[in-house]
Specification:
The protein is α/β, with parallel strands linked by helices. The chain is built from 16 helices and 7 strands. It has helices at about 15-30, 35-40, 50-60, 80-90, 110-115, 135-145, 150-160, 165-180, 185-190, 200-210, 215-220, 230-250, 255-260, 265-275, 280-300, 305-315, and strands spanning about 10-15, 40-45, 70-75, 95-105, 125, 150, 185. The strands form 2 sheets. The chain has a 5-stranded parallel β-sheet with strand order 2-3-4-1-5, sandwiched between helices. A two-stranded parallel ribbon has the order 6-7. Helix 4 links the parallel strand 3 (about 70-75) and strand 4 (about 95-105). Helix 10 (about 200-210) packs antiparallel against helix 11 (about 215-220) and helix 12 packs across helix 14 (about 265-275). The longest helix is centred in the last third of the chain and has 23 residues, at about 230-250.
Length: about 325
């Protein structure tokens, strides 16, 4: 390792494009000021990329007192010849050059992956996609780093409309933050961000279970050719989960909901919250409505009418505190 304090090679790999771009940006930022154009060789894997050219670039000395950066995008698509040339180079790398391979996917079993991994403990930078449940919190952290304020409901709505593309999320936050003076509310998201992400069934189920008919209908209208029978089946399953959660809560066993449903704690939080708004009688009515809707769909009734009637059964259910009945 030379005085620049970097390893001879890095691999930024994973589905999160923004993370990969951040790795690249930080390495570029370490180049000697004023000499970036001389010390940066940025390429993309293609059939025209020559193994000799890549090795020659890697062995070229930098201008000034800094290091040289050779950056190859879409490295997972490198030809065997170029890949083998890089593997050979890494056995005796130029101490004044840093190689960065950036790609969405590269198997850990490949020789190239293993060669970069052997360079150092932190040579492989995993840029895995963020789990859907963690995206709203990620949006809030990202907004804070950009000195933009966004609350949890607005973050959730932004993710629902934009999807999980972190690069698009960042651009949206920046643009909306400038437009809204540095503070983003759910109303700002609803008024200014068009829905481009496909609606996930669990989003729709949550809104129905929580009785938010406006959001439920909005999500329903954005579904692409939804199968009404499949949605009824999912709603039936959700009612059974609500019944389980409500029953355990009445017995003082709310902490057992995740175990009884065979799910993780985070997966049942919305279910527990939604169950509190129903009485046992109302949940029984919802379960009966699901069965009725299924019969109507299978008998040839108008699907739209039957399904919207079912949604209204959930959403107009009065607050459970109005009923003292128990299981």
């Amino acid at each position: 390792m030379a005085d620049h304090g970097l390893l001879s090679a890095y691999l930024a790999v994973g589905a999160d494009q923004l993370k990969r771009e951040t790795v690249v940006r930080r390495l570029k930022g370490r180049l000697e000021s004023g000499l970036e154009a001389f010390n940066l060789d940025e390429r993309t894997a293609s059939s025209d990329l020559s193994a000799n050219d890549v090795v020659l670039s890697l062995n070229t000395l930098p201008m000034g007192s800094g290091f040289r950066l050779v950056l190859i995008h879409d490295a997972g698509a490198l030809s065997k010849a170029v890949s083998e040339a890089i593997i050979g180079y890494l056995q005796n790398p130029n101490p004044d050059c840093v190689l960065c391979l950036e790609t969405e996917s590269l198997s850990k079993g490949t020789r190239l992956y293993k060669a970069v991994a052997s360079v150092g403990r932190q040579s492989v930078i995993v840029c895995d996609a963020i789990k859907p449940r963690d995206l709203p919190a990620y949006v809030m952290r990202l907004a804070k780093s950009l000195r933009i304020d966004i609350d949890s409901s607005a973050a959730q709505e932004l993710v629902s409309r934009v999807g999980d593309d972190t690069t698009l999320i960042e651009r949206t936050i920046r643009s909306l933050g400038e437009q809204c003076g540095g503070r983003i509310t759910i109303a700002d998201v609803e008024q200014n961000i068009a829905r481009t992400a496909e609606v996930k069934p669990w989003e729709f189920l949550n809104m129905v279970a929580m009785g938010d008919i406006r959001r439920a209908l909005e999500l329903y209208r954005h579904m692409i050719n939804p199968s009404h029978l499949a949605l009824v089946s999912l709603l039936t399953q959700r009612v059974r989960e609500l019944i389980c959660a409500r029953s355990l809560a009445e017995r003082g066993r709310q902490r057992d909901v995740a175990h009884e449903l065979g799910k993780a704690e985070w997966q049942v939080r919305d279910t527990i919250r939604a169950a509190a708004r129903y009485s046992p009688a109302q949940l029984t009515a919802c379960l009966s409505a699901c069965a009725t809707c299924e019969r109507e769909l299978k008998s040839g009734s108008d699907e739209e009418t039957a399904f919207l009637r079912l949604i209204s059964t959930f959403c107009v259910a009065p607050d459970s505190t109005q009923s003292n009945s128990s299981w």
